[in-house]
Amino acid sequence: MDYKVSLFWLALVVFFAIIEGVTPQLVSIWFAGGALVSLIVSLFGAPLWVEVIVFVAVSAILLILTRPLVKRRFANQIVKTNADALVGGEAVVTQAIDNVEGSGLAKIMGQVWSARSSGGDKIPEGTLVIVERIEGVKLIVSVKESEDAPSSGPEAGKEV
Question: Structurally, how many domains does the chain consist of?
Answer without folding.
Answer: 2
